[in-house]
Structure formats: C-alpha cells, structure tokens
C-alpha cells in the first residue's frame, strides 16, 4: 500500500503535468503564437498584472514595444499595439468593444465611460453629449477662468507675502502639482456638482485623496483576476467610494430641488453647468428622465475622468518647461509679445494667437501621456486581422491600448523621447496633431476634451503672462520644503505612477517651482 506521502507526491505530479499542459496549450494552440513578445507573457498574464499593480504599465509597454515592435503579445490572450493607424482603426468602431474590466472598475450603475455596451454609450451621448460641446464650454468659460486661472493666481500671489527677495524682486516657492489639482477639482466642482469644492481657497484636499484612492482601487479591481473579491485589500480605503457617492448624490438632489426636470427641455439648449444638462436629460425613446442612481454615476465620472487628467497634463507640461529653459523662454516671449500685462487670455485667444502654446501642450501630452493606463478592447466574435492580415487575433483576445507606447513609437516620431514642440509648428501641423491620441480617438473618444483643453490653455497662457518660473536650485534656494528633494536630469527620470492616469509619484518632492512676478 503506497504511503500517504507517495500519494500526495503523485497527486502533485499529476496536477503539475495538467498545469504545464494547460499553459503550453494556451500559449501555442492559438494564432497569437506568431506574435513576438516576452517569453513569460506567452503563458500567462502575470507579468502584465504585476506591472499594472505597481503602476508601471506605461513604462512596461514602452519597453516591450521598443524591443519587439509595434504588435507585441504581452499576455496569453493579450496583445499590445503601438501602431497609430491600427489603433485609430480599432478605436473607430463599436465592433471592438471596451474590455470587460471596465465594468469591474466600480461604477454602479454603468456610465458613459464604464459601459461596454455601445447602445448605452450612444444613448447617453444623445442625452447629454451637448453638455461637453465646444459651444457649451464657451458658455462655462467664465466659471473656468474664475475657478481655474483667477483662483490659482490669487493663491500664488499670496505666497509672495511669505516668500523671499532675490535681486530686489519678490519670489516664492510653489508646488504646482497641488495648485493645478486644486483648480481642476474646483472647476469640476462648479460644473459637475453645482458648486466649487473650495480646495484652492481652503486647502482641504479630502475629495482629492478620495478620488486618488478610488482610482487605485478601480485599477486593481478592473485588472487583477478576482480583483472584485480582494475587498479586504482595500480595508483602509473602504469609505472613500461611499464618501464620493454621497457627495454626488447631494449635488444631484440640490440641483433637482432648485430646478426640477421638465423632461421636455431642449437637449441643445445652453445650461449654466454640466450637472444641469444631466438632470434635464431625457430618454430619447420614453421621454423619461435619467434615474437618480444613473445620474450619480455620471456625476462621479466627472470627478474620476475630469480632474486628475487635466491637472496631471498641466503638471507634466510645467515639468517639461522647467527642464527645457529655451522652450520655456520661447513660449513666455510669444505670450508676452501678443498680450499686454494684466490681460485675461481666453481659450479662443490661445487657439488663434498662441500656436506655440498649443504645440507645447500637445507635445507634453504626447511625451507624458496622462491617460497611460491599460485601455483594453475586445476582438469581435469572428476575430480580427492586424497589420494588413499579418496577424489574426481570435475572439477572446484583448488588444491593450497603450497610448504612451504609441506616442513613443520611433516609426512615427523622430527622436521620440525628446520634448520638441517644433514637431507641431511645421506645415504638416494638423496632420501631426492627429497622430497624438492623448484623448483617444473614434467612437469612445474623450467626451471632456474641449473642457480639458480650455482649462489647460487658459491656465498655462495666463500664468506665463504673469509669472517667471524656474526650477529651484537645491543648493542655493533655502526653503525647508526642498529638504530631501532631488534634481533630475530629465523629466523621464522623475518617478511616475500610472493608475489609469500617469502622475509624478512623489509630487510633494518633485513638483516645486520658484515664481516671481513677470519681469
Ligand atoms: C487632459 C485631460 C484629459 C485627458 C488626457 C483625457 C483622456 C481620455 C481618454 C484617453 C479617454 C478614453 C478612455 C478609454 O477608452 O478607456 C477618455 C474618455 C472619457 N473622458 Fe477624458 N480626458 C481628459 C479630461 C476629461 C474631462 C475634463 C472630462 C469630463 C469632465 C472627461 C470625460 C471623459 C469621458 C466621459 C470619457 C468616456 C467617453 C466614452 O467612453 O465614450 N475627460 N478621456
């Protein structure tokens, strides 16, 4: 009679053989075997999950594309693509639905962003897509200026009071990451919640912390196998999503109290803010208003999609300008040569008169893509061909879009790691800009792109007009906030973290600038 040890050992051998056979079959009995990629990625999605959980998906995909080319197998059923034409083709149609992970992110019920159902997405856009149109953004522009530009200027001007003098000029140390965060949240407060969160004025960052934690939870839940069952991992953050829900619910209730939905409101009419558009929206078939829980989910979406994204975009732009003084000088000179001291520069002014500023922002979004997380798309039931039939992707495969890898593709961008706004200053400017997919493209393109550009353009133009900026000199600038800070050779060396959005990992250390009133 075999001993218990022998039985266990035999059992383990059988399980081992079964596991290896399964892994080998999974790796090689599929057309994906023809696609190059890292060895371990052929058998499992483990290394992809590992890089996602560490917040390094963007670096990982940039690396594998540099090594293996424009189409890379990064998991047993996952393929990453950095070819811009192929990505535009995939993104152009609802045939390639968003991956199932989107529905696990934690929005209940599903909303415009998280739904993988094209019909719900289309319905929502019909109902309130107009809230995000260029015309609507112009209607809100005074609010954007008040809670963006003016409140930032107010808080930075106040810093001069406790700042220092250098060569007879006042100067102050400011953390631009927190400054840009405050304005992005306050703008969404006004437009999406009916009132500013007052972060720029009070410094209370409770809501920012809650959004950051909720994003981290969402990335892990959406992408880790069994992520939804790992509730215990998030014990310390459990209250954050509830806190955000309660804030959104209160905003919806207050808006309804002030002006109940009449449900025959013209969807094209202009409204004071995005929240009002949502509350007034009706189902195109039944004429019924959107129910409260769905409204709350859409309002929350504005916090998650519309804050960190714009403010990180501004922070990366500022980091780039501080590290490339000649580009900064050119930008500053263009702004000051076209606008008088004390002018207020509006979004259309930037578009019409400051092409270099538009180029700087576009180049910064290319090089430091804000939405740099995994954006998976499912293959249709019949599968799909890639690269003119070179590869066949069967149903069940996901194409993981890495916008940051696409933006660093050496076949599309000469010297791709260089910050070079001149790329967008030539006669092919428009065409080059269309290859920047920072807001994605096609049928699920960012709904808030006009709002985001309005924020970024107006904030950047107006602060360039009013302040001189420089990187702190860690040896001679004596500010206690700079203790323990490092100086990096390039912006790429600044530690980064991507949980859907890519941000500096240690903003409390790496996002300082010295400002003085414009010379
Ligand atoms: C610089 C700022 C921003 C960037 C770089 C950005 C980028 C993106 C990207 C890449 C997507 C596609 C995501 C995917 O396919 O999974 C997206 C979707 C979306 N964004 Fe933005 N975004 C920004 C700001 C905003 C703002 C301010 C709002 C609204 C307040 C917003 C609302 C949305 C919505 C609703 C979607 C989902 C669209 C759909 O699935 O049909 N975004 N954004």
From TrEMBL:
Family (UniProt): Belongs to the cytochrome P450 family.
Binding-site positions, heme: 446
Cofactor: heme
Transmembrane regions listed in the UniProt entry: 6-25, 172-194
UniProt organism field: Coemansia spiralis
Protein name in the entry: Cytochrome P450
Gene Ontology molecular-function annotations: heme binding; iron ion binding; monooxygenase activity; oxidoreductase activity, acting on paired donors, with incorporation or reduction of molecular oxygen
Keywords (A to Z) from UniProt: Heme, Iron, Membrane, Metal-binding, Monooxygenase, Oxidoreductase, Transmembrane, Transmembrane helix
Domain of life assignment: Eukaryota
One Pfam family it belongs to: p450
PANTHER family (alphabetical): CYTOCHROME P450 (PTHR24305), CYTOCHROME P450 12A4, MITOCHONDRIAL-RELATED (PTHR24305:SF166)
Transmembrane helix among keywords: yes
């Amino acid at each position: 009679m075999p001993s218990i040890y022998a039985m266990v050992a035999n059992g383990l051998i059988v399980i081992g053989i079964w596991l290896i056979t399964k892994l080998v079959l999974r790796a090689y009995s599929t057309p994906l075997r023809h696609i190059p990629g890292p060895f371990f990625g052929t058998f499992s999605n483990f290394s992809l999950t590992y890089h996602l959980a560490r917040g390094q998906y963007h670096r990982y995909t940039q690396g594998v594309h540099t090594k293996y080319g424009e189409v890379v197998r990064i998991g047993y059923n996952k393929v990453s693509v950095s070819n811009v034409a192929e990505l535009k083709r995939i993104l152009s149609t609802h045939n390639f639905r968003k991956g199932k992970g989107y529905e696990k992110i934690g929005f209940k019920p599903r909303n415009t962003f998280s739904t993988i159902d094209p019909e719900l997405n289309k319905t929502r856009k019909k109902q309130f897509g107009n809230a995000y149109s260029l015309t609507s953004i112009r209607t809100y522009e005074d609010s954007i200026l008040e809670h963006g530009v003016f409140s930032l200027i107010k808080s930075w001007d106040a810093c001069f009071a406790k700042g220092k003098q250098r060569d007879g000029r006042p100067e102050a140390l400011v953390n631009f990451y927190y400054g840009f965060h405050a304005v992005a949240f306050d703008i969404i407060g006004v437009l999406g919640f009916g009132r500013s969160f007052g972060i720029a004025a009070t410094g209370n960052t409770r809501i920012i912390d809650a959004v950051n934690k909720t994003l981290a939870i969402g990335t892990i839940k959406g992408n880790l196998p069994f992520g939804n069952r790992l509730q215990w991992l998030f014990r310390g953050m459990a209250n954050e999503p509830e806190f955000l829900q309660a804030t959104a619910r209160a905003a919806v209730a207050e808006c309804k109290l002030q002006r109940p939905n009449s449900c025959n409101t013209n969807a094209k009419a202009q409204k004071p803010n995005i929240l009002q558009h949502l509350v007034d929206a009706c189902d195109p078939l039944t004429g019924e208003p959107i129910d409260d829980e769905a409204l709350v989910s859409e309002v929350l979406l504005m916090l998650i999609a519309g804050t960190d994204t714009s403010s990180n975009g501004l922070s990366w732009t500022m980091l780039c300008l501080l590290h490339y003084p000649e580009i900064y000088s050119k930008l500053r000179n263009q702004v000051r040569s076209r606008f008088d001291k004390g002018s207020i520069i509006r979004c259309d002014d930037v578009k019409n008169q400051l092409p270099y500023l538009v180029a700087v922002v576009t180049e910064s979004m290319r090089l430091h893509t804000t939405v740099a997380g995994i954006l998976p798309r499912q293959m249709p039931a019949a599968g799909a061909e890639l690269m003119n039939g070179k590869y066949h992707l069967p149903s069940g495969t996901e194409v993981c879009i890495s916008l940051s890898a696409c933006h660093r593709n050496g076949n599309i961008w000469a010297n791709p790691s260089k910050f070079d706004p001149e790329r967008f200053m030539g006669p092919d400017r428009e065409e080059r800009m269309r290859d920047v997919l920072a807001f994605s493209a096609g049928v699920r393109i960012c709904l808030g792109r006009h709002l985001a550009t309005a924020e970024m353009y107006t904030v950047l133009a107006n602060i360039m007009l009013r302040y001189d900026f420089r990187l702190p000199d860690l040896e001679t600038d004596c500010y206690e906030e700079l203790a323990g800070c490092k100086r990096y050779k390039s912006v790429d060396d600044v530690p980064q973290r991507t949980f859907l959005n890519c941000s500096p990992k240690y903003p409390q250390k790496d996002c300082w600038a010295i400002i003085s009133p414009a010379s």
